[in-house]
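Page header: ASSEMBLY MODEL / two components / 1567 residues total.
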Amino acid sequence: MCRARRSPADPGSVAEEERRVKANAREYNEKFQYASNCIQTSKYNIITFLPVNLFEQFQEVANTYFLFLLILQLIPQISSLSWFTTIVPLVLVLTITAVKDATDDYFRHKSDNQVNNRQSQVLINGTLQQEQWMNVRVGDIIKLENNHFVAADLLLLSSSEPHGLCYIETAELDGETNMKVRQAIPVTSELGDISKLAQFDGEVICEPPNNKLDKFSGTLYWKENKYQLSNQNMLLRGCMLRNTEWCFGLVVFAGPDTKLMQNSGRTKFKRTSIDRLMNTLVLWIFGFLVCMGVILAIGNAIWEHEVGACFQIYLPWDTAVDSAFFSGFLSFWSYIIILNTVVPISLYVSVEVIRLGHSYFINWDKKMYCAQRQTPAEARTTTLNEELGQVEYIFSDKTGTLTQNIMIFSKCSINGRSYGDVLDLLGHKAELGERTEPVDFSFNSLADPRFRFWDASLLQAVQLGNPHVHEFFRLLSLCHTVMSEERNEGELYYKAQSPDEGALVTAARNFSFVFRSRTPKTITVQELGRAVTYQLLAILDFNNVRKRMSVIVRSPEGRIRLYCKGADTILLERLHPAHHELLNVTTDHLNEYAGEGLRTLVLAYKDLEDGYYEEWADQLLRASTASEGREDRLARLYEEVERDMTLLGATAIEDKLQQGVPETIAILTLANIKIWVLTGDKQETAVNIGYSCKMLTDDMTEVFIVTGHTVLEVREELRKAREKMMDSSRSMGNGFSCQEKLISSMSASRLTSVLEAIAGEYALVINGHSLAHALEADMELEFLETACACKAVICCRVTPLQKAQVVELVKKYKKAVTLAIGDGANDVSMIKTAHIGVGISGQEGIQAVLASDYSFSQFKFLQRLLLVHGRWSYLRMCKFLCYFFYKNFAFTMVHFWFGFFCGFSAQTVYDQYFITLYNIVYTSLPVLAMGVFDQDVTEQRSMEYPKLYEPGQLNLLFNKREFFICIAQGIYTSVLMFFIPYGVFADATRDDGTQLADYQSFAVTVATSLVIVVSVQIGLDTGFWTAINHFFIWGSLAVYFAILFAMHSDGLFQMFPNQFRFVGNAQNTLAQPTVWLTIILTTVVCIMPVVAFRFLKLDLKPELSDTVRYTQLVRKKQRAQHRCMRRVGRAGSRRSGYAFSHQEGFGELIMSGKNMQLSSLALSSFAARSSSSWIETLRKKKGGDSTASSPSGGADKPLKV
Amino acid sequence: MAVNYNAKEEADGHPSGVGAPGGAGKSRKPDNTAFKQQRLPAWQPILTAGTVLPAFFIIGLIFIPIGIGIFVTSNNIREYEIDYTGTDSSSPCNKCLNVSWNSTPPCTCTINFTLNQPFETNVFMYYGLSNFYQNHRRYVKSRDDSQLNGDNSSLLHPSKECEPYSTSENKPIAPCGAIANSMFNDTLELFRIDNETRIPITLNKKGIAWWTDKNVKFRNPSGNTNNLTALFQGTTKPVNWPKPVYMLDSEADNNGFINEDFIVWMRTAALPTFRKLYRLIERKNNLQPTLQAGKYSLDITYNYPVHSFDGRKRMILSTISWMGGKNPFLGIAYITVGSICFFLGVVLLVIHHKYGNRNTSADIPN
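Prediction written out in full:
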């Protein structure tokens, strides 16, 4: 599709060192041969498909091995099987894989086509022309319109907005949904119309293509001036233009060179532990194969020397073979060929098919479908399913994963009275769930219809004109950094940096204090239906240390007032001491709110004298323009003014949990899965959520909080925590040597689990600073040990990298399967590091989902994914592998025994067609059906008894021991399979007197016994006989006999006498009662011990799943008790905090007016004020009135070098 | 207007798997079918004492009578076996021990023996070979079934598999290959000695091969003549054979490739010790047994050398039953397995009663 292009991977081309792009000069740019904007994610086309795909497939060791066998078979002295016994399975496997690859590639072609054929407007020869994306070249100037995707990496030249500003959404790039501002450099921002743009002949010299999304450095040369370019001037492919009517951009990187495409590298291929075990076992089996080959080759050499040499009168040696030794050497390879079926090629394909089936079941699961978001669960990786049944550690993000990231204004305390409790008719607090009607806000045309509040008394207070309540909501409507947008009259949209703030402003809005619009200098509030414009004098912005924010406004009456909201711990200290009583009441309310897991804020105000303010503002101006110590000076000034405030009240915001989070966590904990929360949030918030989702409970013996800032502090805190655990477990009487155990068991994970069991319930909370120290090489083990001994671990304020490090740490030392779940771009590293990554397809974009192996939209689906799908997948895969190894050993080892009776000549026992078809036809489908459909207990039971999950974690169902049992059973079967017919056939004759023990009859008898025995065995292994299982098992037997008779029929023989030598054999042999007696005997002898053994195991030492299954059978109606989740309000410690997730510095941005474009769009429509007029005012004022302008405003000035 | 853009596809180059291509119009809600929701009705067998123990007893109770039946039947079969290899110096055939393929005149020897019990029903006469590896890979494949099926081109161009017995003196060998070349060619004749007179016993040489072999698998080359000599024109005899294939027998329907001795030989044995049907002795009338008790003599034309590789040659006379010839193994095996099953059943029953978890539902930890 794409024309041949220069790509960095081309060995011929020199790596690009810098990129030169000249606008409107296609010929000039042509000579650099930059990649065009055509992207190609597909790997093949029709011509290259076969060779390239085959080449790729033969890079797989297994495929190459079979190819090698195939080549061996072409040597006549070695060939012990016909060529087709290997080539048919090989071709089948290659075909299946090729078809899969082809379908994948077809879809890629389709999506490539779709993307490449999108239309964009390109400026060619002075006119805008519609062009397909793929025809856009580097150096073209293209026009983008609102809500369009950016076609390539562009240098923003100009836009419809003043100052060349434009807004983009980068959700596709980094998953962040908030808008970002990009700005054209001033010289080009004037190029508003096409004629000017057509004249533009600037040249950009910049860095070569790379994958750094947030970095760009280049220079624009135009009209003999140099202008520095940065990422601020770039629009990247994949972004979407928002709130900007149009903009023009110069294509700098196109197609595969764009940052988006440079970032879409292949993700690391994850393997499951079963995969690794399987590979080890396959290697062992190869070793075993070679051993058998060697034994038989030695046997052959001896035989040829002792017997074969004399037998030459009837059977001379091949011409090339001159010694018994050489014959033995050849027979080694011959045996390698016929014994290769111990590791059949179909193993890998079958495993993939089963996993694919499981993935489809996940995709199809109705109970993991989220109706609200219309997203079904999706298994994005099809190769990890059984690992879902072995998870021991879950690392969870908080925001968006455990919580919905929706903040709800839940309660408030105003002037000593608490509002927001749901009261029933008698005035008692009502229980959750039996809520009455929410408060009706219909009188207020500007109200947000989604807002719910249950306490009508607050509204009454507003309507009655309670001044405190009015002041309370006035504060909420003024003191914030929210931007408003009014698309149509009365349709307000708030754009809040943090959802908490949005919730507060929305609450004020519904209670008739509607924040309507803002300019850098004013805030317009619709107070009880009357528009009031406050003059915004200053925003004292939020930061981590201050934990509060304030605004200073001048009301229309001219009164200057400071409104402040912030964390209780900080704010309560800064109140005027006069209001002691109110403070006490409010504190009680705060405790109550915190006890319910709500996030609280305290609100206060202070009136400022005009003179005082003037003086203060003056100092502020000087401080903000100071070159040194600006931050300190500002902080001191803020501190000074936010003092002696009057308490207004407090708000309580509910950080809404995702549905079913506490229940899910409880069940997963019961399943012995440890859950660690890794969050970027603050400690208070994280702990709060920890309590509300029942990870932390008040029943816990202790919650250790590690907040040390130095290595020593952290080490000390960890040590103390451990000591406490030791002490208590020692006092419980059985921890006598725990200390030593702890030290010695640093790497032996199982020992520590003993420690965990006796240690009681502890939890660990650690913050980012301490974590950084704890993750250092000399302390990581201490940290891990302490953390693993705790029931719950919460790491707060962690960076994405630390998230990955924590996961890596557990992976490294615990040898346990880890699962990371998250929804945001900051979880990507952790998702990629963990064995299994789960993405929540929620609101924070799709970055996490793209990096994940599984995705769904609700945290609660995790329990179903693990306890039902994971558990079944693991069970099925284990059963499948056990049976698969068994059946192939039973099948193949017969050749080994036969070797001792045929002069070690590598003569096969079976017909060559049987060997060809055994694995791919006769025995494949029943075991596949079992691998796909089997269930030991129903899904309800898996949820009811989370303990059923444990065998997977301990890896009990398929490990080396189980493998050897399977192998032993296979070998046992093969021995009987050979020696029983041998015993029968040695002297016997048929019922018509003719010879019974001819080779072909023997082959048919052994083959038939084998098929019957392995069918009975799969019948025993299958625990869940659906119609499909019945069909496959009986069908396989039927197909065996059908093919047997067909292969032995006259017709085929007449056509190919040399290929179908067994003519007439089936009907002759299978008509013999002796043969059937032999088959029955073999079957019973092979199966009987297995049944006896399994029965004994079930009877004497049943697994939990057996017991559950048995109970299910006996008492179908038995209803096991559900574990009740207690929903008890927790009285106790106060955990509140100014839990705002927004960034510092936003206030400054507002004051500078730089981000005003959003609201100005809205303003222009309703306030009849030109959107640019106030910007003009602002510009005029600039320089003089620099209270509002910030140093970052300097970006407006051209940077002339 | 927003462009329908699936960023997922662009960002990782993969189509997003299942259900995604449907787009907005189609609901992405999974179908509520028993199959997709893994709720297919199913039979869930479980090994309980109620099923396993009876099974063991039933198997035991069925196997033991069958075993006894087979054992008795097998014991009622008359079988007489003579090793005539001649390794023992006292054996009359000792002189022939080192014969070669084409020694002339052929070495003959006579072995006298006595049947103590009469053989009532039809008697089958076998030759048995030991330490003869008819199942060796190179041996087994050394034949051309196409040629044996009468294919004229294969007749003149035998398959490579027949090497080194595909051509001799620049002429194709018919039948080619090591199997045909090594065909057993001793002649055995049986006489009853009645008062010093040797009464020859009629040995039937037809009806000893499978019907399918004789009529489907093996066919003489076709042509516009019935004269085998002409049909085999251009071929030569196997190296070890004294006579070409078209002179194996005088009867036209037992000559050439469809000679039954030849067909029997060509059906290679599975094990290095084997017996092959040589002749039939049919019961003349119902009044007297096929072979009375008494003295017999076996005349052997000793052509087939086996001594060089420690092979043995035997002649076996046997009657058969519904389940073929004498086969003590099967009967004993059935009795043994039946007994073991029964015994195991008892043991399991005892264990189950003493230690079994009968009240299993009680100990499900919650």
